[in-house]
Amino acid sequence: MGNTQTRRVLEIIRHPRDTSGRLFPANLKELQLPPGTCIQDGSHEFATVICCICADGSYLDPVIIMKAKNELQDSWFKNLDNVPSNILFGVSPNGWTDNSKAMSWLERHFGPGSITEIKAAGEWRMLFFDGHVSHVNKEFLQTCIDYKVLPVCLPPHTTHFSQPLNVSIFSPLKTAYSDILHKRSQAGEKGVWKGNFYTLFAEAQKIAFTPENIRSGFWYTGLVPLNFEIIRRALNIPAEKLTIPGNTILPVLHPRPPSPPRSLTSMSPAEVHAITTPRSQQNLHHLTQSLSLDLQNSNTPRTWRIRCAVDKLSNTSIAALHERDHLQEQLLQTTTERRENQQIKPRRKRWIPEEGLILKSKEDIKQYFDNLEAESKSTQFNKLQKLREKVAKLEVRMQELIAKKEKYRAVENQGRKLPASWKSVVRLEEEENKELDRLKKMKEDIEKLESELVQEEGSHSEMEEGEDQEEDENREVFELAFR
């Protein structure tokens, strides 16, 4: 769920298929680690996000698969308003995808009545994917053909330049997600868990999944529009050995190379003043190279000393950046643990039943909460009905006690002795007082239940009015845009 940087850090991780413990013991003295190596606990849970983008600049609803033994927990969706409506949810024992979830995803996005079928207007579609076992199996490939989808498995070890998601989407997605986590840590908010990961991912997705990024991914991979020259250069195939079908005209492409570092003496004063303080390792390395360009043409003892000092300063700064990142992670982890220990209370887990749906949308989760609320309301009504029945019986009992007490008192007033099997008037009054307290307590419980039911009905009516008003506003905005 996080974004890692290149640094000298040894992470003690857990294997996703092994729940017994870490891959390495906690005591690592026998490994003889080099000086300056940090050891941190990397035993994070795995979560899989299935993404799919289209050449027209749009993207399909992503799927988030979280680690759980049974089903989705209702505690992960406490605030249903924050659950994105365009994300599907699923679980697996290790947080990975499998054949059943891949089939469910394929049926939802490429099956009959899906959005891709509507956009294709009955024509064939093409689906590019990697060689994961959930994609490359007989059932998945045959279902693609049945849905008029041409499956194309990208060659192994080529997805870093042949898959549009890897080329233009995942890098800005990781950057946006890392920035969101950094802002949260600065604001002192809680860490990432299953109940807010999908919200953070949805925020990062809005930043990264832009139509420009999506189209550039297909363009730079040479897929749409089809460009064999890009593919040839990526595979380092000589032009004379490339067989091109038909009379395809290859446009000459000049990809923009990364800007090389410039010497400071070649910059104008305005450009030198525009140099910002480097806050990342890449920017620091770029500035160091610019300084080295000014010193490499001179071999005098003075420039050699300056060059050595610059190298030392650069190494020290990079180590300081490493240490800063590590301390920020430790601070975030400590703050998260402290807040979780203070705020999280043990509660009974409730699982959202599968009910034939391997992947669930926000509507499916909302339906579960609606059913749960209806069941709770029905339980309250039954409890209220039973209390009313008990109150009615208790009132009859009170009338019988009052009548019996009057009868006993009349016998005493006549001077006759009460039979031995009869209770005294004093005991009848004590019993009457006890029953009166019970009756008062039951009536208070009835009033409390009635007020709760009235408040729930009022909140539901206000919510429905708000939804109707929001629909009217959306309709007005749509009509205005349409005009």
Task: Characterise this structure.
- It is a single chain.
- This protein is mostly helical.
- Among the domains are: 257-348, no CATH class; 362-482, no CATH class.
- It has helices at 99-110, 115-120, 138-146, 159-162, 164-186, 197-208, 211-220, 228-235, 269-273, 281-295, 301-343, 362-413, 425-482, and strands at 9-12, 38-41, 47-50, 63-67, 88-92, 125-129, 149-153.
- The strands form three sheets. Strands 3-4-5 form a three-stranded mixed beta sheet, with no helix packed on it. A two-stranded parallel sheet has the order 1-2.
- Strand 6, helix 3 (138-146) and strand 7 (149-153) form a beta-alpha-beta unit.
- Helix 1 packs parallel to helix 3 and helix 5 (164-186) runs antiparallel to helix 7 (211-220).
